[in-house]
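Sharing a chain and its predicted structure for anyone who wants a worked example. Both blocks are below, sequence first, tokens second.
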Amino acid sequence: MAELQIGQNQPPTHHGGLENLDAEYSYWIEDYEGLIPHDLQGTFFRNGPGRQKIGGNPYGHWFDGDGMVCAFTFKEGKVHFKNAYVRTPKYLQETAEQTIKYRGFGTQVPGGFLSNVGKMPANPANTNIMYHAGKLFALNEGGHPWEVSPTNLNTVGEYDFDGDLARSQVFSAHGRIHQATGDYINFGAGVSGMTLKGPQACLNLYRINPAGKMVNQTQVPLDNFPFCHDFAITDKHALFFIGSIVFGGMGSVMLGLKTISDGIVYNPKINMQILAVDLDTFTVSRTFDTNEHGSLIHFGNAFQRGEEIIVDGMFQTGFAANSTLVDVFNPESRFSGGYYNRYFLNMTNGQMRTERVNDVESEFPTFNTKLTGQESSVCYTACSVDNGANGFFNAIQRVDFDGHCDLLTLPPGHYGSEPLFAPATGATKEDDGYLLEVVYNAYSHKSELLVLRADNIHDVICKLPLNHHLPHQFHGHFTPEVFC
């Protein structure tokens, strides 16, 4: 483990939470504070890089760490924890040889361009997790889903929806469940053909029914290759924000001279556009020009009220965060977020307006997913606030639709992650349930799961300490199904 930076007035940094967790565990959490609620039943899955180094050598980007799935299972007032790495070819070969053998988003194989030419980045299955149609998927934008057993987290294998997802197609880490139908809507960046200017960028759109069958897919052409990581849906539309973060220099990537991360830039000359795509036909209903540069990485909920679609998301200008992601062990590194914006899109006259919901630096917005695409009034985000140790997310907030914010700041030296809503059994209200927040304690180099009341995040119901740390992860998913 890296030496913790503790001084008289300086709490330890978040960097210990980037150290590898090589062990895989399965145990009941027995020593905890508070009372585990009996009306919290189900499984909280999380995914993220479990290791940032192999053979003592760091990967070149946080996005390249090998995916490690965790599961907290709530059953009759008890909680079970387990974790396991996704057995991708990258994980297996690099574990066996203890050296970097695959390119990544920002990682090159040692040996210069001859070791990298013509090789596309590996899929580490490390970004998100989704349970749909009885299957648990570990997701990354750079390839196909990886199926994992929800019961024991054993790797089943790469998944292509019975051949409907072509080898050349990628599947985003962020999909949405359409509540009226139970369909799983997702997308992936792609190429739809060649033009005189070169490859034609596009979004591949996918619709998978509740039985797990891909029932629709199509392509939406784009003017450039954007960093499009997430999207939002209403009952009738998918909303894609095509921003100012773009990819370039793919020829140098293919030649092995540069990584994808090297070629990603923030271009203020490219204004952000919003595409409203009809979910039934997968055609663009309207395009909104924002007349400003910017990008949104993650989205809250979206819904239609009258003629307007309302979309929440975390807005930012610039992509300075990429330099932090490249050099995560730099003691000066600071992981930053965006700002909570709300967009009003008039589907009749094409006009739009924007509101700043609040000025708290935020990321990883979540909400009660039972209301995906429907009118909702509560959102939760991870925040970074100045508490003397703000190099990573160190607070969470509950934001009401009217902008009222409740902020819970963690003690200095404690670092949080994406807060996830879990409904109480038999819930009748939107916020009737719990907020699940994994916190890394940099003083002890261990992690714990906090269970908070969703309607009052200051009410900590219980603290569930682990016997070890969990490396900082990205995203999670809660299902009321119990896997243990």
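Comments welcome. Residues 36 and 77 are 5 Å apart (CA to CA).
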